[in-house]
Amino acid sequence: MKNLIAAFLIVLLFASFSSRGEGNVKGRVFNSKNNESIVYATVQISGTTKGTVSDDQGNFSIQNLEPGFYKISVSVIGFKTYVSESFRITRSVGATILVPLEEENIKLDEVVVRPTYFPKKEESPVSLRTIGIDEIEKNPGGNRDISKVIQSYPGVASTAAYRNDLIVRGGGPSENRFFLDGVEIPNINHFATQGASGGPVGIINVDFIREVNFYSGAFPASRGNAMSSVLEFNQREATEKLKFRGTVGASDLAVAVEGPLTQKTSFMASVRRSYLQFLFQAIGLPFLPTYNDFQFKIKTKINSKTELSFIGLGALDKSVLNTSADKTDQQRYILSYLPENTQWNYTFGAVLKHFNPNGNDTYVLSQNKLDNSQLKYQNNVVQPQFLNLDYNSYEMESKFRYEHNYRSKSGIKVNYGVDLQYVSYFNRTVQKSFLKEAPVTINYRSTLGFAKYAAFGQVSRSFIDQLLDLSFGIRADGNTYSGNMVSPLSQLSPRLSASYRLTPGTSLNFNVGQFAQLPSYTTLGYRDNNSVLVNKDNNLTYIQVKHVVGGIEFRPSDNSQVTVEGFYKRYSHYPFSVRDSVSLASKGADYGVSGDEAVTPTSKGNAYGMEILGRIKKYKGLSAVITYTWVRSEFTTKNGDYIPSSWDNRNLLTITATQTFKKNWDLGFRWRYIGGAPFTPWDLTKSAIKTAWDAQGIGYLDYSKFNTQRLTAFHQLDLRVDKAWYYNKWSLMLYFDVQNVYNFQAEQPDYLERVEDASGNPVTNPSDPNKYLLKTIKNTVGTVLPTLGIMIEF
Fold first, then answer.
1. What are phi and psi of 491, to 5 degrees?
2. Which of 58, 407, 490, 547 is the most exposed place for a label (fewest CB within 10 A)?
3. Residues 6+ apart with CB under 8 A from 81
4. How many angstroms separate the CA atoms of 40 and 59, rounded?
5. CA 410, CA 408: separation in Å to the nearest integer?
């Protein structure tokens, strides 16, 4: 900690000869419906008197801006006023902003809704938060990781184990979907849990992100296969001249480059490599992870009506055991069960957008693949007879989506399209286990190939002089995996949204809908030792959830917002574990694989609660988000009784604030309070059996007492300081982030370990030679975690 502070001060002294500089923002204003240029639009830097008007090509340029983050507001008669998300200006590199204006059908004597920093969509008037790059860049404790930033928003719980699991409104980590510039990506984290969505570190490079749309409900019909959240990551435009950025982050090194390729084509690309494995080895951790990732975007303007983008994202992760780190009980415990892991994934996509006089058409062609392998030997003795786990699997999706957007002169907004996919899945598993009081070896090979298809449509319109917005959508999904899922009519997902403006700054909002999600491929492809698709025979089907969300939104000013929302989710057909007699809804927040087991589609569940959000942007340099969520989450047992799920945290409170000072200083903090989660005690009798313990190197949970105990609450304070220097030809950005400032030790379920003698050998129970003596070890997580980040841009 002291060394990092010293390094921070040294860099401050080195850069103290900062020179002042000015930059510029350029862009184009156009009709979002047909891409036609809009002339004489008023373009103004929000919060200042600086501005201009667009020329006869819709282009604009504002010069002589002090370096920093800005927003622009754009207005013209006949169109809704547009307020951009934040963008960064430096002296060496400006910003390019595309401004799509939406036609407004109002008369001069009708009610006009004033512009706001918090835009709302007719399809999703509730449960949608738009997060700008300034919030992502400087989020305390976030370390420029988008998943950690989202944990500051209402309804989102997090774990104390420093993972990026998204637990939204009482739903599990498998219930979320992600899109990058309209291309669906399977996961956004390194070392992802196959069959879910979590992991310890994010993949996406925030340098390329313009904004994130986070839906915790009211999903548009074009976004399917989600039950708890949809995240849309929208990338910005590349700069007009070549730009490089080098970053030293909390655990990795990154290089990014962007600029023009031709007059009509631009690109952005980045690569990243971790150095975390060296730190872990130096401090004696028993596992050494290494991760790498890449990201790129190439965009070309074919003509005035057609543009084509190529998107790419991928990662390569490897974790090996540090067997020399075996001095403590905790180290030996981790070494006893943790496998070595290699994982890689990619997504490549092409997005073609064509504009016509009444709307636009979007064609998305993409492919993504996840390859995952794990290997574990008993006591880490690499010999065939000691093999406990040999797992190799991949899942690949080839996708095509077509969307047509249309807006009539009367203000009717229409979106419809189709979604086609082909899925390939492979699994080769050899695993020792202990079932029905006897050791068994699970040994199977599974190959699947099937098609998925969907059709969707949504219609939106304003009524009563723009006071009432209504939107109705419907989606139908099907696939060829089994006969009971072939017909899309069996998976109809209707939804209805409404918003009524009581005053220009106050509205009542509502959404009701039904959403369907296909179980994970690990569940669909599970076979028994006779190669039978067990879950297909068990009539596995789509999981369905009904949402009801209602609330009120109040905007005291253009840059402040208060919302109160109540939500209720009703689940049905959730996979239910045959082995453990619990719903898979409570699984998925651990490393490895989730859902690779026999299930029946019989679990039901409820999640309900209330959210309060207070948000302010750029008020005298202050930006703040205050959220409180009360949530309950419960699923059925085999007897049909409701018990708390693993995400039943009940109370969530987060306060995040960042203050901007003169000379490019920023100071921020985040404080989180998360109610204690339920947990399951160990089955001491089963765990003590030698053949049971040796099969997996760890104890067994007592699922007859599933989630009957509860941890104490977790809370944490994070602080962050940012400083930037802008020179003629380059810029230096520095941040110092400290997570868990007061070193709170979060309670976790106790470790269960074998008693060992002085030589480190497990001790046999004197009264039963077939059993080990066991002991519990107190388990807490939490440490002060300082990080020094350096970004150089030129």
1. -125, 45
2. 490
3. 73, 74, 75, 114, 115
4. 9
5. 5
Q: Is 705 in a helix, a strand, or coil?
A: helix
Contact indicator for 652, 157 with CB cutoff of 8 Å: yes
* 611 contacts 567 by C-beta, under 8 angstroms: yes
Tokens of 43: 């373009």
User: What confidence tier does 161 reach under pLDDT thresholds 50, 70, 90?
Assistant: low
Residue 509 one-letter amino acid: N
Place of tokens 């700054």: 505
Number of neighbouring beta carbons within 10 Å of residue 485? 23
Classify residue 729 by burial, with Cβ atoms within 10 Å: 0-12, 13-18, 19+: exposed
Strand pairing class (23-31; 95-101): parallel
Beta bridge partners of 488: none
The residues that bridge with 787 in the sheet, in sequence order, are 737
CA distance 648 to 679: 10
Contact between 140 and 670 under an 8 Å Cβ cutoff? The reply is yes
Residues 500-547 have pLDDT tens digits of: 999 989 999 999 999 999 999 999 999 999 999 999 999 999 999 999
Side chain identity at residue 10, one-letter code: I
Report which residue type is found at 346: Y
3-state SS assignment for residue 351: strand
Contacts of 74 (CB under 8 A, 6+ apart): 29, 41, 42, 43, 44, 81, 82, 84, 99, 101
Cα(315)–Cα(202) distance, integer angstroms = 10
Q: Where are the alpha helices (DSSP H) in 723-765?
A: none
Task: Give the position of tokens 């009444």.
Answer: 358
Q: Residue 327 to residues 283, 598, 748, 783: CA-CA distances in angstroms?
A: 12, 38, 21, 20
**Range list of H helices, 48-158:** 133-137, 146-150
748's CB contacts (< 8 A; 6+ apart) are 160, 161, 711, 779, 780, 781
pLDDT (average), residues 172-183 = 95
Report which of 506, 498, 651 is spatially closest to residue 564, judged by C-alpha positions.
506
pTM assigned to the model: 0.91
84-98, 121-135, 716-730, 751-765: least confidently modelled range: 84-98
Q: Are strands 243-248 and 252-260 parallel, antiparallel or unpaired?
A: antiparallel
CB atoms inside a 10 Å sphere around CB 381 = 9
The two three-digit tokens of residue 705, written as one number:
């007492």
Cβ–Cβ contacts within 10 Å for residue 74, how many? 26
